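Have a close read of this protein, sequence plus structure tokens, and explain what the tokens say about the fold. Thanks in advance:
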Amino acid sequence: MPRTAPPTASAAPRPGIATPTPGGASLLVLLGALTAIGPLSLDMYLPAFPAMTRDLDASPAQVQLSLTTCLIGLALGQLVTGPLSDRWGRRRPVLVGVLAYALLALLCAAAPSAPALATARFAQGFAGGTGVVVARAVVRDLYAGRAAARYFSRLTLVFGVAPVAAPGVGSLVLRFGSWRAVFVALAVIALLLAAAVAWRLPETLPLDRRSTGGLANTARTMRSLFADRGYLGYSLTQGLAFAGLFAYISGSSFVFQDVFGLSAVVFSLLFGLNALALVAAGQANARLLDRFDPRRLLVTTLLVGAVAALGVLGGALGDSLVLVAAALFVFVGSLGMVMPNSTALALDAHARHAGTAAALMGATQSVIGALAAPLVGLGGEGSALPMAAVTTGAAGLSLVAVLTLTRPRR
């Protein structure tokens, strides 16, 4: 398994890095915003799902497919951009990606049908994957071990605002326009983010640490990552946990609005409350890392999440809104500790190829998560059971992965 760096408060900038003080508020906010591209892409148009099925004359499964294609695009975008950022640095790839994301959001807004929207969302996700992978690589450029886990935890305070605000902003946009206006708003947000990247993002990968081996070297690096049992285990753990989260993301709009009869506004409030739980858990994780190592916290919170997922399943079987909502609050909150710890543990031994390692981990997360949406959609309408079953299965498998693949060798 990957070796764990000794606990440090932070890692000093490496020679040749033109950057403000690592951990500064401006860098934290910017990296959080880049990571938030994923949640914004997935969450902001959730309240519009019922309206989209009517406007596009499509089934819920066809509309949910746009979530799946976006996630697949995110996966492939990270696989391409991560190695490129190891070769060309962090700034150029992310700037191009965010600008492309803005243009593709406008293409989504003009989609005439559900298949066309799914195709445009794939391209939009591909461009958005740039910000996600570069943000992770920048953190690994600057931090290691517990310090990296602590910084990833603090990032949840920033990018956690995205799922809190996104459905509410989406609902607000829907009061003044159609679902197409939501994608126009995403384009505007991306343009503002591109300006911030050009102005404030430092280059954290100096020339002497960049990869120069081309595709052959990238292939060798990926093979070595797959051969690293610990890296693979933590990546699968995070990917399976994300699949549980994505089952909730893709199914909750229909479950709360169509099955339990809540309004779009109330659904947005519940969704935001769960996201706040994720943010709060992330901040608690940053403090708990002073006393406990990241792996112990990871295993504990995965166990809590698995029990909570069983609660969601029980609430679905009993048709209980209160139990489903309460259990989801705990499950989503637990991921505020799962994500930063699994990310830091996976990347810890791979500082030399942080972009490629972050890309492969992010792609694994996206691909596994992408399987959740069609599974929820194929379960049919009129019941919370499909969402609950997929969430529970993913949470259980995530716990199994960390206990088996990342078990310390004696």
